[in-house]
Design brief:
By secondary structure, this protein is mainly beta. It has no helices and 10 strands.
């Protein structure tokens, strides 16, 4: 069973902002996309770019890797360019005032 890890208070990541966290040696980016929290692995599965530094685009549906401009769905991790490559996406749980990630 995946474990829940507390990563921040809800008010610590305002809309449009992000926070880098490390859990069990993994770098994970937590984003607040218009009030919806998303979490993904910082590294791009395509060429190891810093996906966590990418632009959120398409009304908050995708993130664009700054290295080669690959776009990944923020819910599924899929990219239309190569379906074999998928960004690691983690469920975010809002527990009262706490944000938790399920790993």
């Amino acid at each position: 069973m995946p474990e829940l890890h507390s990563v921040a208070k809800v008010d610590e990541i305002p809309a449009g902002e992000r926070r880098l966290v490390e859990i069990d040696g993994q770098e994970i980016m937590v984003l607040n996309v218009a009030g919806t929290y998303r979490a993904l692995a910082v590294r791009c599965p395509h060429a190891n770019g810093r996906l966590g530094d990418g632009r959120v685009i398409e009304n908050g549906k995708r993130i664009e890797c700054p290295l080669h401009k690959w776009k990944f769905d923020l819910v599924t991790g899929e990219t239309l360019i190569d379906r074999r490559k998928r960004a690691s996406i983690y469920p975010v749980v809002v527990d009262g005032e706490e944000l938790k990630i399920r790993l």
